[in-house]
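Before going further, learn to read the protein records used in this course. Taken together, the tokens spell out the fold as the letters spell out the chain. A record is reproduced here so that you can trace the correspondence yourselves:

***
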Amino acid sequence: MRIAENWQDYELIDCSDGERLERWGETILIRPDPQVIWKPARKNSLWRQAHGRYVRSGTGGGHWTLYKNIPGFWTVGYKNLTFNIKTMGFKHTGLFPEQAVNWDRTMDIIRGAGRPVRVLNLFAYTGGATVAALKAGASVVHVDASKGMVTWAKENAVRSGVAGQNVRWIVDDCIKFVQREIRRGSRYDIIIMDPPSYGRGPGGEVWKLEDEVYGFVELCKKLLSDQPLMMLINSYTTGLAPSVMEYILGTSVVPTFGGRVESDEIGLPVTETGMVLPCGASAFWLA
């Protein structure tokens, strides 16, 4: 497992009985996590001093219960990156801190390329990978179907001091965008994708990961440059093992471009217990 252990402004303090106790800057939140099925005693006093807790409803969804005042948004930093955070629906805060291990690797590859690098970030959410790639000196096309998420990503770029750099912000269905880019003859050195398990595009297009991801990778590889560097698939889909994504890249991208593929879980260290909480998986194709 690759562990995101270099945070200063984020900390997974403890986890027990279906919940995480987290520090986001100075704000303490309790959020549900279905993977936390172990039940150690909650000895840390911060369980009783949290600013807010997301409570799931028995009929689906849920709501935030705030015990203390929380600003409409606040910021957290990771190394030289800065992100806006806020409590939002479905327990989220707008950032997945475990992805820091992938930001670091992507930045290292861009900086080590010794040439201009073009990055395509698909299902790009609030732009963690986009901001990291821009900070490393790449040009980026950021694509997400949600106008609100793209606006948030722009704000994160401003916070990190990369808003004026080579970036295009696209609100669109990712499949349709890729198809148009193929027709245009566009090429990218790095392609990153973080596809949802299930979703709908702005025109009502249905996305189901198991049905779509292999064909989508086949489509995306047509956008790789003559000297590509990397393709990355992130997944939070329950039951989709890292090796499955590795095999997708291995059977699709390797026969055309060579290189190698690797995959692993990514996770967050738990301060209270010394354990590591698994938080999804990533697979890399590397030249």
